[in-house]
Amino acid sequence: MPVRRRAVCGRVSFAAVRGPAYLPPAVTPLGFILVTFAASLVAGAIGSLLGVGGGIIVVPVLSLVFGIDIRLAIGASLVSIIATSSGAAAAYVRERMTNLRVAMLLEVGTTAGALCGATLAAHISGRWLFVLFGLMLGYSALAMLRKRQEHADPASAPPDAWADKLQLHGSYFDRAVQREIPYRVTRAKLALAIMFVAGVASGLLGIGSGILKVPSMDLLMRLPIKVSTATSNFMIGVTGAAGAGIYFARGDINPFIAAPVACGVLIGATAGSKLLGRLHSRRIRVAFVVVLLWASAQMLWKGVRW
Amino acid sequence: MSEPHDRGEAARPPPQIAPAPPAEDPRVRQVELIISTLLRAGVVTSLIVIVTGTFLTFAQGRGTLSSPDDLRRILARSATFPHTPGEVAAGAATLRGEAVVVLGLVVLLATPVMRVAVSAVAFALQRDYRFVAITLVVLGLLLLSFFLGRPAH
User: Fold this and answer.
1) Which residues of chain A have a CB within 8 Å of the CB of B151?
2) Whether the model pTM is above 0.80
3) Half-sphere exposure of A130 toward its Cβ, with a 13 Å CA cutoff?
4) Fewer Cβ atoms within 10 A, N terminus or C terminus of chain B?
């Protein structure tokens, strides 16, 4: 399938941004393992709290600090996405922070989109998509920041036939405020469509596992921010697995790189997942907005520098 | 708490309180616990196997895993490592460090897929056939992506 091979190359357009030949620092293999492990601990903790994959940290460390080929770096970042998801989701599901039904429904959109995106990648230039998604993320960041009231009255959510029929509503116990927070889900159909678009973007550009999911659950479906990040965290494992299978079969997952990434992220994510319940929602929101702005800037930069 | 979050919702329907929290349904709780346990088992298994493999790699690579040049060789795009099922199985059977690490990575990558499959069974036990269908669609798309992703030979 020659189309497919080109498709996956299209995803790796980051290479254009890497600049001149870079001489990696003189470290021993053991030093590399230790540094990568430490960076992955941080990536796992942040990723588990914000519902993103940690690629934002892992990819720059591997490609900029160690000068590792971008494909191998993306392969390692897919491993990091799955490790973040599985490491934290065990705790989030047990604590009922994850909305399993919302996650399952939206996964239909993301996996279908990712499949289409990877197929389309051979035919579409990513440049304008980077600019488009960069602007979209920037807008989401501002909208999320403006949403001041964390726990809106569940009754104020517009009624939604899909959410009622599929019983998507739920509640969770917020340990920061020590009470049960009920919520009603809305605009499920629109969110499913947006997830398809998000899936296409991640298939095309290799970006945004969680970074596109959290805003749509927060802004459209009106899930509480903690439920949004925990549910996104749960979903990214499946999206990541689809991509990782492809990279793995091609031999782009180097065990020497993936081992410290997987171990660090698993431990970091497990530790981070113990924190989410206790942190105040407002802090999670502000931290997410910062990461969102950072990702938006990165994407716009890639589009401009194409 | 009661002030409307959105503007223009004067005509909103009378307040409906969210239905009973899912935790009160023991069957839903059971699904959550099964999924959580499965994820934890996958995570712990892969972590142990990957750490073991890393130690084996260093133990077996004495002399070829010590200098920065060795690192450059290992991290190069051209470096080869086991990535087909046959290579992984053969290497892991003889406890080759790299192959053991890859085995642990395979367990890690398989965990989310297993999670989707188990969810389908769990929803079926709850007689929630709408969600069985949704979950099976996700599983089908996931397997399709593995199939499409196989490299051309």
Assistant:
1) 5, 249-250
2) yes
3) 23
4) C
